[in-house]
Give the backbone structure.
Amino acid sequence: MSAVALLDQPGAVRAGEELDAVAVDAWLKQQLLDLQGRPEITQYSGGASNWTYRLKYENDDLILRRPPAGTKAKSAHDMGREYRLQKALKPAFQFVPEMRAYCADDSVIGGEFYVMERLSGIIPRKHLPHGMQLTASKVRQLCLAVLDTLISLHKVDHKAAGLVAIGTGAGYTRRQIEGWSKRYRDALTWNVPCGERVMDWLLSNLPSRERICITHNDFRFDNVVLDASDPTRVIGVLDWELATLGDPLMDLGNTLAYWVEADDDLLARSTRRQPTHLPGMLTRREVVEYYCGEMNIAPENWAFYEVYGLFRLSAIVQQIYYRFHHKQTRNPAFKNFWIIVHYLHWRCRRAMKGRS
């Protein structure tokens, strides 16, 4: 199969999420003077938070990111922050797409937005693209390349990169536990665990040492872009809206909360959204060992970071289920999310006892 056939492609723009093509084109041509022709606009299906479009010009290929229509909480969809962070990070971290333009004027398309280069490649989702076959050896190379990308990010000197202001830094660990605990409590429904035992355990087991670096906070296989001609090579990292200054081991804990292995139980396998089950993939334990070896870190209490990642994911899942439970969304895919919340809390309790 040709490399082109493996590329991640957008589809038709969803009803109600159309862009004003004339307004976007006019604004962009004032910023990027060499653009030619009219843009062919398509939309990516992923990314439930911000809307992502492809603008294909005769001589350029661009991505536009904007908040959903009607968004009022700017802090949750701060396009300006996302744009400036990536622009500042690009010189120190090659995997960031090149930023091209930012528009703070809501009147252009009804919300702020930014435009960046489109990285043409493969995005490894639940299943690799049809026709893409990797040996166990190649899968291992891919896995290590993705982990090396995260390690490379965590080694960036955020002070030298001019990114001191993207987060508070010190005290991050406690703020995360308290913040996610509040979000979980606020989203409680009658059919999920109260979670107090897990939340109390996290606060009682805060690590004595806190490391601070740039953290992505949504680092998964489906947020990396692979070279279509060599799928074991990472060429980009996407979705930086949650990036901040935080603890690298908490970032790794977040990543491993999504890491489903081939021999995990049936419920875990039913939640898999990335190809971590393939022969050749590292296990969660092997990931921790490899990461800590490359970072020269000896975590005093890995169970804390494991429980944190699982609990944070449970809060995210519960927030989604809360909307379904209260009929704020009718997406049937969310109907049984309460079961996943129970499962994640069971995993938390096992990890708290030292049984991952």
Remarks:
- The two ends are 40 Å apart (CA to CA).
- The chain has a mean pLDDT of 93.
